[in-house]
Amino acid sequence: MATVGDALDPMQYTGSTFLGNRIHGRMEGESKYFLPTETRYEGEMKDGMFHGKGTLFFPNGNKYEGIWDSGLVVEGQYTFADGLEYKPEKWHYCDSYDRRFYTEICGGLKPAGICQLTNLDPPRNIPTGCYDCGDGFYNPDTRVITDYSFRFLRNAGALNGKTHWPLLCSRSGHLLGDTLWPLGLQ
Question: Model-level pTM?
Answer without folding.
Answer: 0.62
